[in-house]
Backbone:
């Protein structure tokens, strides 16, 4: 066998393999160039000299026929489903007049709501809604939490802003100190929640707020039992002198609503 015959034989084997892959894998049958496959078969057939090559040529024709059959089936299926090429549809829409497009839309429009349920006002409202609606990329964008710089307010700041009266606050401070000393009794200390806890959450927050100033002003101090995870308020007999910035700042202690609710339920039992 000559070198040219061997090359033609390899080409026939390759087109057979190509057709079989397209047939068995379910690919688009038009991915196979039928004209090219046929040209290879036509060039190989005159040079057939053996039964083996003749069978090879017949197999190539058989595989090409199967591909052409699949192409015909594909065309029949698409035509029966009224298939339209997307590019052709796009071109036709762009070339159509606005009035013609509106007419086609009205003819094909089948709204769920009945005609008598749609008013001019509701249609106008719908048009305004869609007109003012932000694009999807804006509506779907999610901003993360932004860092906000916080500050610190002293009791004097609250007085200046008129949030508190200095005279009333001093009276409240003294009253709460007296209450703490009376309730602490001989034990000289009281559980923090038992002291600040009240009938309402709002009153509890206020008592905790004033208690913070009792500590920072030297009327009492806090003792934390880390083993029992308990905090105690211990009153001083006399006001202690507190030096530095602590004399004008309260001691921050979290008064959580859930903690207050839990304390209230335990007290009720």
Residues:
């Amino acid at each position: 066998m000559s070198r040219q015959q061997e090359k033609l034989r390899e080409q026939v084997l390759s087109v057979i393999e190509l057709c079989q892959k397209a047939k068995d894998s379910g690919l688009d049958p038009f991915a196979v160039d039928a004209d090219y496959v046929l040209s290879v078969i036509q060039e190989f057939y005159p040079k057939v000299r053996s039964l083996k090559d003749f069978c090879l040529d017949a197999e190539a024709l058989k595989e090409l026929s199967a591909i052409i059959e699949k192409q015909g089936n594909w065309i029949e299926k698409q035509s029966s489903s009224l298939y339209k090429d997307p590019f052709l549809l796009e071109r036709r829409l762009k070339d159509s007049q606005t009035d013609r497009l509106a007419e086609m839309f009205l003819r094909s429009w089948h709204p769920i709501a009945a005609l008598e349920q749609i008013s001019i006002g509701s249609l106008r409202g719908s048009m305004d809604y869609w007109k003012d609606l932000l694009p999807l990329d804006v509506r779907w964008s999610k901003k993360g939490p932004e860092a906000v710089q916080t500050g610190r307010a002293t009791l004097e700041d609250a007085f200046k802003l008129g949030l508190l009266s200095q005279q009333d606050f001093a009276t409240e401070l003294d009253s709460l100190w007296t209450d703490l000393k009376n309730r602490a009794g001989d034990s000289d200390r009281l559980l923090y929640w038992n002291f600040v806890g009240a009938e309402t959450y709002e009153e509890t927050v206020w008592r905790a707020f004033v208690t913070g100033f009792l500590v920072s002003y030297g009327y009492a101090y806090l003792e934390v039992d880390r083993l029992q995870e308990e905090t105690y308020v211990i009153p001083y007999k006399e006001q202690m002198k507190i030096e530095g910035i602590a004399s004008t700042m309260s001691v921050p202690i979290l008064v959580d609503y859930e903690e207050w609710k839990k304390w209230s339920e335990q007290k009720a039992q």
About this structure: Confidence is low (pLDDT under 50) at residues 245-250.
